[in-house]
Amino acid sequence: xxxxxxxxxxxxxxxxxxxxxxxxxxxxxxxxxxxxxxxxxxxxxxxxxxxxxxxxxxxxxxxxxxxxxxxxxxxxxxxxxxxxxxxxxxxxxxxxxxxxxxxxxxxxxxxxxxxxxxxxxxxxxxxxxxxxxxxxxxxxxxxxxxxxxxxxxxxxxxxxxxxxxxxxxxxxxxxxxxxxxxxxxxxxxxxxxxxxxxxxxxxxxxxxxxxxxxxxxxxxxxxxxxxxxxxxxxxxxxxxxxxxxxxxxxxxxxxxxxxxxxxxxxxxxxxxxxxxxxxxxxxxxxxxxxxxxxxxxxxxxxxxxxxxxxxxxxxxxxxxxxxxxxxxxxxxxxxxxxxxxxxxxxxxxxxxxxxxxxxxxxxxxxxxxxxxxxxxxxxxxxxxxxxxxxxxxxxxxxxxxxxxxxxxxxxxxxxxxxxxxxxxxxxxxxxxxxxxxxxxxxxxxxxxxxxxxxxxxxxxxxxxxxxxx
Length: 469
What we know:
By secondary structure, the chain is α/β, with parallel strands linked by helices. Helices cover 41% and strands 12% of the residues.
């Protein structure tokens, strides 16, 4: 029963506005965090319905000696009606709920009839109209199985290849991103066996644009790619799949907790060509023997997140996010710094910069400043043409925010609610082919020399160990 007390206390803290849902959940003990978080989130999704059920059944009035909190009643009634029952021994609190189980079920059924719905999923609180138009995207992890195998797996489980909005069991193949499937928004995959073992990745369509546009070398053992801000690992695992698990993919993450999450994600997704590095990308020397060999860099730095419409805090009906101009300017300065640093890597040929923001301050303005930077000019970087950046995607950059230049057509924007995705922005810098890399040697020659030095160091270390013994 302590589990339910902990979950109700989290709801108390959320009501007291002690922080965001995600922030409060992050403070829970790690050993029970995922279980408690799941119950809290699911309870919030049905909060208005469950509250009506509790009030109509007079549960709190008749059992006030044993259940003295609405939030405690919410988590207990949730598991009674919408899960597999209360996961606790037969104590007085559980018995108090069970005494009212028939009445609770009856009141829930009344609400479903009143609202004209048949399933419990239809009672879930959507974030807003825009979120209801975004399918549940599932990226097939091609490192573990093929898209054809995934489609066969889900059709055998009763899903049908059709529009994801045609029915609760409908799903389709995305037209822009290979290996991406779109399911009905109400579908949940947290308990799906394929998700649990890493065969599918839950990733919004727009979030898949970054790795797809970067288009790293595939099945090339000499490829060197960098993901500059890798955690939690969705885009990193996508890059690894696009590379065919070949070459070397360096994934940087400066935060220790997020770095741990990244490593777990990569292990689960069977990404064997990734070397996770617990370091700040901005502190990495572009001339480092290993990292200087990178030809492709993905930048998806911290942003305002203003394009995300299905974030957890949509569950707080009165939660309104206000993004201050000062914060946007600070974020933009950091984002520009990341791009300029990436441009210093001597062999990089392609840099993708993306955000989940809708603000021009973090998008078009950052790109304009990057193009005018000394780093871009000295290293001969320009924006890739539209034909190389999702050419069939209609929504492009905002020309008025790019001073009316044609560069806006090279940029990609996603509008939440209109494009079937969260809000997103993607850009791609390429080095002009006729430019000369200053003070650098051919890529393979440097790689061979680095490997020779590393081999020599290992030999010396073994010899030293033998002498010691």
